[in-house]
């Protein structure tokens, strides 16, 4: 039997290992609920996960082993090494100086932006903005030791994310989503000035992270960038190619070159939600090797279609629907979706099964367990899906 | 002559020519074209064309937003000039909001823009709107239709709760209720007892018209 790491590496080299590898991505709220259910110790506080605002958590080794998953996620921290700073007025401020408020829903809460800090800014204002400093010690404290230990003492594949915001995505938070979209028509110089600055920060985070621990990694995940809606791209392919792609080409290319120098077998993972079919070729050409997530209900992103058209050049992470099946389906429906996805995506490798986005606290624990039980049972090569 | 100018105004909305719309509107007024005719024969037609392109996948979010901004700039000039007798009779009153626990509003705003462009009076309650605020606003504003948006699966239950609160307040028979948002599907709308669901902003306008009996249903 291969090690977890070999299983993932084989799949990402587009060959079939013994079974389809498994990954996990979840919010803190969902994580605490799952640990509690499994009778595992739950801490009061956890360090910030991949992005501060999203209340992600880096799922710990004990849970990864308990569920027999193959990938463990690690990454940079904030420049102070802490999560949000809570202010007297109840706002939470992240490392981008973005103020957020706690907004409760039935099963938990998110921290949502109060006022985009660059909403009224002009290009000339960007130089004075308090940008997060990727060279700050707080971002990297303990990371080398952690990666080395995981690499030597476990056989898990290690996925790291170093960037803490990204380019288009972080611009939405800093400028306001509607405003940055309007800017692409009404104020193109500002868009380029902001994206150039954010690209520089993203590249620096990845450069430092890869030099520090690249040799231990199987996957590097770039900062997430949501380019799609459920139905279509948010912006036209032409607008994407004018405003965003040049920065991706620069950032992906730089990061990939550094990564391959440390570990030629490691792969670059890129996250965008939504319906983005028309630009997949652009993303592949820029350096995307793993597309994250596989979101089965976005229009035109049918898993079998993606596999047929890009399967020789691209791998996927995700696939099990967090918008309907996991929160509202039965464990049987979850298992049925897992079997379908495995049949569509497993041939020839190139697939890591996980939820199609973060597991959120609205998802019943029974459905999370049903997903991984079914994936282990039906994901065995030679008899996939049966 | 008037037709040509109105068509240029519609075209300016379609192309999102925000800097030139004011001059075009002033030109039309100087030609003594009635404000109502400028709105209905020019701006609204332009916005309808935007909807067609958005639905077809030829227009994306920036184009729709700039077109809506262009139309709004023109309406701001024209509305004060409408004589009381020529006030536009809206197709219907639409109350819209993003449900409790959810602050996403781009989808909701685009639905509002399309509804306004089609001739609905839209009252937008904003985001994170509690069931109580929906109920209160229905009592006060007496809309024909209430639209509830949820952009997260975690806030879909708030659509159900809001519907229950509307029923408990005895208002369910007075309004039609529509639901929408990224994770929302027709099955969910049916399950919670909403009257309508639309997968996108243009379909939302069609559904609103259908619920008010303004067009026959297409199936």
Provide a concise account of the structure shown.
Chain A is of the alpha/beta class. Chain A is built from 14 helices and 13 strands.
- Quote the distance from N terminus to C terminus of chain B: 40 Å
In total, the number of domains of chain B comes to 2
Main pleated-sheet profile of chain A = 7 strands, parallel
- The overall pLDDT of chain A, averaged over residues, is 96
Low-confidence stretches of chain A: none
The CATH superfamily label of the largest domain in chain B reads Cobalamin-binding domain
Using the alpha-carbon principal axes, give the shape of chain B. elongated
Architecture blueprint of SSEs:
The complex is a heterodimer of chains A (386) and B (219).
Chain A lengths: L3 H9 L13 E2 H10 L18 E2 L3 H6 L4 E5 L9 E2 L5 E2 L5 E7 L2 E6 L29 H11 L3 E5 L6 H8 L1 H10 L1 H26 L5 E3 L15 H7 L1 H18 L4 E5 L8 H7 L3 E5 L8 H8 L4 E6 L4 H4 L2 H15 L5 E5 L9 H14 L8
Parallel strand pairs in A: 3-8, 8-9, 9-10, 10-11, 11-12, 12-13
Antiparallel strand pairs in A: 1-2, 4-5, 5-6, 6-7
Helix pairs in contact in A: 5-6, 7-9, 9-10, 13-14
Chain B lengths: L1 H13 L3 H13 L4 H22 L4 H18 L14 E6 L7 H13 L2 E4 L6 H11 L3 E5 L6 H13 L7 E5 L5 H7 L3 E2 L3 H11 L8
Parallel strand pairs in B: 1-2, 1-3, 3-4, 4-5
Helix pairs in contact in B: 1-2, 1-3, 2-4, 3-4, 4-5, 5-9, 6-7
